[in-house]
Amino acid sequence: MYITQVAAECAPVAKVGGLGDVVQGLSRELVRQGHQVEVILPKYDGLRLERLEDLQPAGEELRVPFYDQWLPCRVESGRVDGIRCFFIDPDSDHGFYRRGRIYSEVDDPGRFAFFSRAVLEFLLKTGRQPDIIHCHDWHTALLSVLRWEIHKAAGLDRARVCHTLHNPAYQGIAGEYPLRAVGLDPARLMTRERLLDQDNPHAVNLLKGAIVYANAVTTVSPRHAWELLHTDQGLRLRETLYTHRHKLHGVLNGIDEDTWNPRTDPHIVHNYGPEDLPGKARNKQHLRRRLGLAEAAKPIIAIVSRLERQKGVELMRHAIHYALGNGCQTVLLGSASEPWIEELFQEIARQTEGSADCHLTLRYDEGLSHQIHAGADILVVPSLYEPCGLTQMIAMRYGVVPVVRRVGGLADSVFDANYSDRAFEEVNGFLFDDPTPAGLESALGRAIRLWFRYPEYFRQLRLNGMYTDNSWVGPVRQYLDIFEAIKA
Ligand code: ADP
Questions:
Q1: Are 141 and 135 spatial neighbours (Cβ–Cβ below 8 Å)?
Q2: pLDDT tens digits, one per residue of 408-447
Q3: pTM of this prediction?
Q4: Taking a C-beta distance cutoff of 8 angstroms, is the pair 431, 223 a contact?
Q5: Helix (H) or strand (E) holding 444
Q6: Do β-strands 401-405 and 430-432 pair in parallel, antiparallel, or remain unpaired?
Q7: Cα distance between residue 179 and residue 186, in whole Å
Q8: pLDDT tens, 354-405?
Q9: Ligand 1 center to residue 305 CA distance, Å?
Q10: Which residues contact ligand 1 via a Cβ below 6 A?
Q11: What angle do CA 225, 228, 231 make, to 5 degrees?
C-alpha cells in the first residue's frame, strides 16, 4: 500500500511528545512490512537537522492559497531514520514555521490549516495518488475536509483518509478564520452536523471536521475509544463521535524497538537485556552519579513526562514526597508549558536542592530520558486521562516496573501484579483507580514494599515487562486492516 503520513511531529527531527514517537515508529514498521510510506511535515526552524539525511529541494515551488493571496512554498525532501520525509516551507512574512517552537502560537489554527492545504496542493501537483492519507491530531484535521470539498474534484480522487486522535483534548477551536483562510466556506460548513463547535455557536471545531469527513477515525487504545464514547473524556466531541461510531477504532500504540532498546541504546553507559540485569545496576550507578544521588540500597522512583494537568501534576508531587518518606530515591524529568506548573516543580526543586535522594530536571532532555529508564526501578504515571501513553511501555522495555492510573492506554498495557486475572508471566506493574493521594499510595506502596521485601518477585516483574511485546508489529497489522477496509 502507498501511505502518506501527515503530522505536526515526527521523531527525532520534530518531537514534543508521544505524537512524534508514534509517527516515526508506525512509519518504520509499515516500511518494514513492505509498504511505501512518506511523511509530510512543516519545515520548522527548529528541526534537528543533524538527524536528517539528504535534504534537497523536491520539485518546483508550490503556490498555496491563503485568504486572497497565493503564497509561494518550497518543498524539501530528506530521510529520517530511513523514512522519506517532505517538508513544507512557505516563503511569506507570516513565518508560520519559524517561531522557534512547534506549538502554542496564537495563530496555530491558521498555521496548521495552511499546512493541510499545502500538503494537498503538493500531492496534486506531483501527481501522487496515495491509497491512504493518514492524518494525526487536530493540526491536520482540515485535510479530510479540504480533500472532500476541494481536492477530490481537482483530481485527488483515489486517496482515502484515516485520522488518528492522539490527544482529543486539543481540538483546534477557533473563529471561522482558518476555514476562510484556506478557501472553505464557513457559512456552509459551520453547521451542527459539520464543523460547528458544540459549545460555542461562533466557533469552528477543526477536530470535529476530521471525525465527520475522514473515512476512518482511530484513537490510540481500545480503552480510550470506549472512554470517548461513554465517559466525559469525549469532551465536546462525544456526540459527533457517537454519530460516527461505526468508523471509530482503538489501536494501541507500539514503541519503536530500535530507538528504545537497552541492548543497543547509544545514550546509556552499559547495554543490557533481560538476561543481564546486573547491567541495569551499572546504569543505576551512573544515573546516581550524574544526578548527585547517594549510592544506597534504595529503589529509584522515576517520572518522565510533560508536566501538564492531564498528566496528574499534583499526584506527581505527592508521589515524590511519598517515595522520599518511604526510603526511596526519586528523579523527575519534565518540562512545563504553564507558569503555575513550572513554579510548582521549581518549589520542590528548591526544597530538595542538594538532597542525596531527589533530583528534578525541569527541561526536555532526550539523552537523560534514556538514562533514567535504564537506571530507574519504578516509573510513576498518574495521568488524569491518557489516550495511550508511551513512557510506561518504554519503562517496561528497560526493566522498570510501571505504577499507573487505570485509564486509557495505561489500562490496556499494564497488568496489575496483585489484582489482574492474567497469567503470572503477563503481569507487569501496578494500577490504581482514584486520582487521589490515597489511590496513588495504594499502588506505589505495593511496588515499593515489593522492591524492599520480595526482590526476587520484583525481579520477575521487571522481566515480565521486558518480555511484554509492545512492538509496532501487531498495531501495524490492525492499521492495515482498517486501511484495507476503506481503500478505493
Ligand atoms: P505525551 O505524548 O502525552 O507527552 P507519551 O507518554 O505518549 O505522552 O509520550 C511522551 C514521550 O515524550 C516519551 O517518549 C517520553 O520519554 C518523552 N518525554 C516527555 N517529557 C520529556 C522530557 N522532559 N525530556 C525528554 N523526553 C520526554
A1: yes
A2: 999 999 999 999 999 999 999 999 999 999 999 999 999 9
A3: 0.94
A4: no
A5: helix 437-453
A6: parallel
A7: 6
A8: 999 999 999 999 999 999 999 999 999 999 999 999 999 999 999 999 999 9
A9: 5
A10: 17-19, 21, 304-306, 333-335, 364-366, 369, 388-391, 394
A11: 125
